């Protein structure tokens, strides 16, 4: 069994309850976005100086997502493509919010982060099982891939 399949199966063990699964469909992407937004908010003068051709995307979030995508590609090149598209969407949304609400992106992201985690823990209380990341921190990265693999299955793409 491939490592990605093993990780997805193990993650799925603590995500059997329909309500908890539904909560994850909203909260996992929200948490992923909020982390992107928080990292996007870190002043990035050094990166912007080194990579001016990236424009507004010469920031810590872009660099961090590049590293995240390296992790995903080590697990599944096919899933990485979906995560790349979702990551790009998160970067674009963070950039839009940073431009539309100057100085507020970090606060918006922090609010989304806290609210989504509260709801996630409520989902796990309903489930009766602890979140997977308490066992292994890499499951924080597997959550988004777990959702992506369902999308892939639905549209008939192998991962």
Runs with pLDDT <50, length 5+? none
- How many beta-strand segments? 0
The total tally of domains equals: 1
Largest sheet: none
What structural category characterises the helix and strand content?
mainly alpha
**If you compute it from the alpha carbons, what radius of gyration comes out, rounded to the nearest whole angstrom?**
16 Å
Strand content: under 5%
Mean pLDDT: 94
Q: What sequence of helices (H) and strands (E) makes up the elements?
A: HHHHHHH
Shape: globular
Question: How large is the count of helical segments?
Answer: 7
Helix content bin: over 70%
Features:
single chain; 159 residues; mainly alpha; globular
Quick synopsis:
The chain contains 7 helices and no strands. It has 159 residues and is mainly α. It is globular and about 45 Å long.
